[in-house]
Design brief:
- With 172 residues, the chain is of the alpha+beta class.
- The chain has two domains: 1-30; 51-149, Alpha-Beta Plaits, CATH 3.30.70.
- It has four helices and seven strands.
- Strands 3-4-6 form a three-stranded antiparallel beta sheet. It has a two-stranded antiparallel sheet with strand order 1-5.
- A hairpin with a 5-residue loop joins strand 3 and strand 4 (93-103).
- The longest helix is centred in the first third of the chain and has 25 residues, at 2-26.
- The chain is elongated and about 100 Å long.
- The N and C termini lie far apart (114 Å).
- Bound molecules: iron/sulfur cluster (2 copies).
- One iron/sulfur cluster is lined by residues 64-70, 81, 116-117, 119, 121-122.
């Protein structure tokens, strides 16, 4: 009987404790994001990894040379780099990027790909809205149609210094 009464009061005490916490939070000012009503103004942190994109300039040029290093370093096989061979103006055969496919659905946002790209061709955006009706819509081609790799100007070659000869050294 004593145990029954003890358990009863213990239960009532635990119930009241819970109600006090609920009541306290009920009257607190709300801090919930008003998503999606604030879609136009909602911002993520600058370093938030939302979605991979190509770094494209105003001339629709990207920096990807199709080396495939990023895809090889991706632990989830979320990247597929498809290349093709083209003949340049001087008759040489060159490998260029055809399609760069990114499966956002299997990406874990680890950023190993961006870190392994020496060309800095891919980067993150803050886009966080990825809801789709079909998973295939999450496979995206990052290089826009008609885009091409940016022309890199060869660094000017410094004139070679003549090796110091014995005669030159004697003249000094
Ligand atoms: S994104 Fe970078 S690492 Fe990946 S294929 Fe292009 S140049 Fe190579
Ligand atoms: S962030 Fe990670 S998982 Fe996503 S594509 Fe890059 S390497 Fe793969």
């Amino acid at each position: 009987m004593v145990k029954y009464i003890k358990d009863l009061f213990s239960g009532i005490y635990a119930l009241l404790q819970g109600m006090v916490i609920t009541n306290r939070n009920f009257w607190r000012p709300k801090v919930t994001e008003q998503y999606p009503e604030d879609r136009q103004t909602a911002r993520q942190f600058e370093r938030f990894r939302g979605e991979l994109v190509f770094d494209i300039n105003d001339n629709n040029e990207h920096k990807c040379i199709g080396c495939g290093l990023c895809a090889r370093n991706c632990p989830n096989q979320s990247l597929e780099v498809i290349t093709k061979s083209v003949t340049t103006e001087d008759g040489k055969t060159k490998k260029v990027l055809d399609k760069f496919l990114y499966d956002l659905g299997s990406c874990t946002f680890c950023s190993l790909c961006t870190q392994s790209c020496a060309q800095k061709a891919i980067k993150w955006t803050n886009n966080f809205e990825h809801a789709v009706y079909n998973r295939s819509a999450l496979v995206k081609q990052l290089n826009p149609e008609g885009s091409k790799v940016v022309e890199r100007k060869a660094a000017p070659v410094a004139p070679k210094q003549a090796p110091a000869t014995e005669q030159n050294e004697n003249q000094q």
